[in-house]
Amino acid sequence: MSNGEMRAARIGSPASLASIEVQKAPVPSPGADDIVLRVEASSLNFHDYLVVTGVIPQPNGRIPLSDGAGTIAALGSNVRGMKVGDHVMGLFFPHWHDGEPSPEKNGAISGETVDGFAADYVSLSSSAITPIPAGYSSLEAATLPCAGVTAWRALTETAKLKSGDTLLVQGSGGVSMFALQIAKAIGATVIATSSDDTKLDRLRSMGADYLINYRTTPDWAAAARAATGGKGVDVILDIGGGNTLPQSIAACRMGGQILMIGVLSGVSMTMGIPAIVMNHIHLSGLAVGSRAHQLELVDFINRTGIRPVIDSSFPLDKLGEAFRYQQTNKHFGKIGVDII
């Protein structure tokens, strides 16, 4: 690895899509316990959009993007068990290695509280990476640290989804797509919602068992209950927040689970607390997961062969355009960023 210059996309002040600028920077050198990652790809998450548009305030010059994958370009003197050229990916929470979340483990967030992966090279602790799945490209791997790990932890650790259960996923973004694939590999029945019939057809081709267009069927909770014979859905992955949670509650079976992972439709709501209490609904909030969760997901992918759905990809110097495309909500699956 040379000690020359690299590119890094930085957020200006005030933060906006127009303020993103690709600048020259020196290639980092690894500390004794670190590796330098040659970033080859990243992907966009809604969290990244909140960062680059200033909804989550940032210092001037922050390097965004929570996901990144590539090859090890250099090793610190204390690093063992790795070598230059290994294909690896970073973590959303670089300090959360295993166990329960805590303020200390979740204090560092890639692309938010610390610099992210919108750069040619990044220096990381050797404990803040994992291998990528066998046969995955860097672009495919770069879809996993946020969306893939969120879906994995939500379904397998929190919900303990099992064969025969019913899962409802909302939309066709990264987390929902991974959840659909993981659930089908486990043997669950999947109900998918979208406002776009073309997207619903594609979700059917991926294995969704029941499809609901929530624009033409505004009371999609009733349609979901009908799909379960009136019992209600076992597990609901709610990505909408304020505008979707009331219907998620109405669609959930007695004793079922609603996993809150997003706020795409709003951050506040008037909630029907009696319905939650009297129906014994388990309402859980969660954000991504640990290095241990990511390793579990890699093992699951290696055993099942599931692959991410990538809508399109943009070069690093078109990062603002990538986010503008994300704003249109026309994408199906993940939007990638080619950095190599």
TrEMBL record:
Its EC number is 1.1.1.-. Keywords: Oxidoreductase. GO terms for molecular function: oxidoreductase activity. InterPro entries: ADH-like_C, ADH-like_N, ER, GroES-like_sf, NAD(P)-bd_dom_sf, Zinc_ADH-like. It is an enzyme of class 1 (oxidoreductase). Residues 15-337 form the Enoyl reductase (ER) domain. It holds the Pfam family ADH_zinc_N. This is NAD(P)-dependent alcohol dehydrogenase.
